[in-house]
Design brief:
By secondary structure, this protein is α+β, with helices and mostly antiparallel strands. The chain contains 6 helices and 5 strands; from the N terminus they run αββαβββαααα. It has helices spanning 5-20, 49-67, 97-103, 105-109, 119-122, 127-134, and strands spanning 24-30, 40-46, 73-75, 82-86, 90-96.
């Protein structure tokens, strides 16, 4: 099984919304072959809690406005370190950069096919490491200090 057209539409709109709010390292995986509960995961990160919340708010607003989609569940708002939006067809994870490194979701899902994303989202790859190096938050290998 592969992700449905609706799932791909949601992933692309969410990825563009995240990119517009300056998210880092946006990536999406087709998890439909290994999970029965959703078709795709979208993962993005930001260097601070306020930006994590801003990215999530923009994704929610954009998907509702453009595609009429509302999340069935939103978790992690209190600390804004890792907010999850569950749209059933897709699950969006927006993480603080430190949580992203610690939990390494990409490592868990690396065997799943990567989904193509809008160019603006693809351009965000490596931004987390770049930001960490500029602010003294990572060593040369990208590991946070």
């Amino acid at each position: 099984m592969t992700a449905t057209d609706r799932s791909l539409e949601l992933v692309n709109a969410a990825a563009q919304a995240a990119a517009d709010r300056l998210a880092h390292d946006i990536i999406a995986y087709d998890v439909s072959d290994v999970l029965s509960i959703t078709d795709a995961f979208l993962i993005a990160s930001a260097p601070n809690d306020r930006q994590v919340k801003s990215i999530v708010d923009e994704i929610e607003e954009r998907l509702l406005k453009e595609l009429g989609a509302k999340p069935v569940r939103r978790e992690g708002d209190r600390d804004a370190r890792w907010i999850l939006l569950d749209y059933v067809d897709i699950v969006v994870h927006v993480q603080h950069s430190e949580e992203r490194v610690f939990y390494a979701l990409e490592r868990l899902w690396k065997d799943c096919p990567e989904l193509s994303l809008p160019e603006d989202a693809v351009k965000t790859r490596g931004k987390g490491k770049e930001h960490a190096e500029l602010t003294g938050g990572a060593d040369a290998d990208g590991e946070l200090n």
